[in-house]
Write a structure and sequence with these properties.
Length: 165
């Protein structure tokens, strides 16, 4: 008799969890496939790992690939030396995201039409950008949109730490 009541209690306690899980599952079934990036990086780069954590925290699925030298990958995707940083992420449809580009700008860019673009870049490694946090220090920076002809223009200006999220 006690076992029967215990089973009923367990079912009643777990029912809301299952109901919420199913609601969550159904909500995602209506969405397109999740945003996934392949991240090309060197095996020892700590800031790359922190940036991957940032994009994953923002709902992007990251698959990292370690290489000793990723210069060839940057060349393959048309990233000129003056736009380069420590890692290169590539979307399923071939757009490149060079360096510490905040996840929100990757998501925004991929939701828009950019027929002549190859992707976005945050050249160098600005202090305070995602993955480059150093205490409360922050250096304003620009996110650049890179074009097939080798040119760029400012896609977004990031003036404060909070604007990255």
């Amino acid at each position: 008799m006690i076992n029967k009541y215990l089973k009923i209690a367990v079912v009643m306690l777990l029912s809301p969890a299952f109901a919420n899980a199913n609601e969550h599952k159904h909500a995602h079934n209506n969405d397109v496939t999740p945003l996934e990036l392949i991240v090309y990086k060197t095996p020892t780069c700590g800031c790359c790992k922190k940036w991957i954590t940032h994009i994953e925290d923002e709902g992007i699925v990251a698959h990292s690939k370690d290489f000793r030298n990723i210069g060839n990958i940057k060349t393959k995707y048309g990233i000129k030396p003056n736009y380069r940083s420590c890692h290169t992420a590539v979307s399923r449809n071939g757009f490149a995201f060079e360096g510490h580009v905040p996840a929100k700008f990757i998501q925004q860019f991929l939701s828009e039409e950019h027929p002549n673009a190859i992707g976005l870049s945050v050249p160098a490694m600005p202090v305070g950008s995602p993955g480059m946090e150093v205490g409360d220090r922050f250096m304003p920076y620009n996110v650049l949109i890179l074009f097939k002809d080798g040119t760029s223009k400012v896609y977004a200006k990031v003036k404060s730490y909070e604007e990255q999220f």
